[in-house]
Amino acid sequence: MTVGTGVSSGTPDGGSRISAQKLYSTINKIFPNKVVFFASEISRRTIPFVEEFFKMDNDEFIEGEDYEIVPIESIDNFNACFEVFESKIWEYGYFDKKCNNKIIMDYTSGTKTMSAAMACCGMFYNKVLISVGGDRSKGEVSAGTELINYQNLYKIYDKFALLRIRNSFNANRFMPCIDILNYIVDLNIHKDSLLNLCKAYSSWDNMEFEKAYDYLRNVDLNHFELSEIKRDVKFNLKALGNICNSRSENLKNCYILASLINNSIRRSEEYKYDDAIARLYRAFELIAQIRLYNYNIKSSDVDLNILIEHGVDERFIDFLERTRDDGKIRIGLALDYLLLNELDDDLGKFFVENRSKINNLTSKRNNSILAHGLESQSSEDFEKFLELVIDLAKKLDKDMNKFLNQTCFPKFDLRMDMNKP
To answer: I want to staple 370 with a disulfide (CB 3.0 to 4.6 A). Which of 5, 40, 133, 274 is the partner?
Structure first.
């Protein structure tokens, strides 16, 4: 409880006595096991009068047993007051999960700064906040009319939770969003759609396209919480629909490629450049595999008859034959592009013409701690590799910009009007 100096009165101690009576009334209504008074040097003189009121009721109120006084030195310093209140919350077991102490914080009395600091501290640590009301016809609450007002802060907590969710969503931290959503109690907040939204993008971030599509289809985009991302989510839903349902293998693969490139960009935004470059390397390889698929060629099982039909040089075919293992010819990134060059494909030509630059970029990836080495990659390494992959992706399909845009995750506006229809 914060303790004020009392209202002005006709006697020297009249103000303290009136203040003490109100404190006594509150204590009797709450009936706590222990009271902590936060008092300035001047307001400490109120406490003995509280003891007197207990004696008048044939009861005892003993310092050290029933109550303690915590001094407030800087009554008009918000941070100083907050830290004093906070220290007592810690002392009474905030970090001890086995502790069952229930803390009720009465911020009615004291200076405005003390009251504001206690209210904020209580809200920050999710404690029960109360204030004393009653008949104020004479300015102050009249003795005997005191009422305890329990402040229901769930809407404020939920608004704060929504802001945290939006921040986490924008940072691609989807699982924390789900955890926070499970604690929201305001029935006006459309929690189910928000949960499906976060689960959808969490699944998509893990390249689980079917799960992402199923979750996203269950999001009601007409809810006010989703109004500013509605357009982007619709584009995303179209992209996932093509990945999951398109009869065109090329269209499906191009959307997957765009998803992978955007996935790498998200990792770079988290400063995880080794991870980002590892994903770009896979995108680089996928570009060649998609183009080869258009020739009916699979990198995981090359059919030499198809190569013969396309007039590939016999020496290249003989070389591939010598790599046959377990009855199959499997080729990796470099051979994918060299085969495309043999097919007189523009992607293969680009690879051969820029072999030195590409080798430099891929060698950095190979030396990454997430590949075969122990080196860490930089933002500059990522940007150079990204430029190469996007250039090739655009050569793969003229609509790649559209695919990239439609697989880019939406971002929330952190400003939100909860009353917006």
So the answer is: 274
Those residues whose C-beta lies under 8 Å from the C-beta of residue 91, and which sit 6 or more positions away, are: none
Cβ neighbours of 128 (radius 10 Å): 15
Q: pLDDT per residue over 241-291, tens digit each?
A: 999 999 999 999 999 999 999 999 999 999 999 999 999 999 999 999 999
Contacts of 417 (CB under 8 A, 6+ apart): none
Distance CA 351, CA 355 (A): 6
Among 25, 32, 185, 3, which Cα is nearest to 102's? 32
Which neighbouring-strand residues pair with 128? 104
Encode pLDDT of 124-166 as tens digits: 998 999 988 766 666 565 666 668 888 888 888 888 888 899 9
State both tokens at 329: 């010819």
Question: Which strands make up the sheet holding 35-39, listed edge to edge?
Answer: 2-3, 35-39, 67-71
The reported pTM is 0.77
Identity of the residue numbered 338: L
CB 3 within 8 A of CB 47: yes
Other CB atoms within 10 A of residue 150 CB = 10
CB-neighbour burial class of residue 381 (10 A; exposed 0-12, middle 13-18, buried 19+): buried
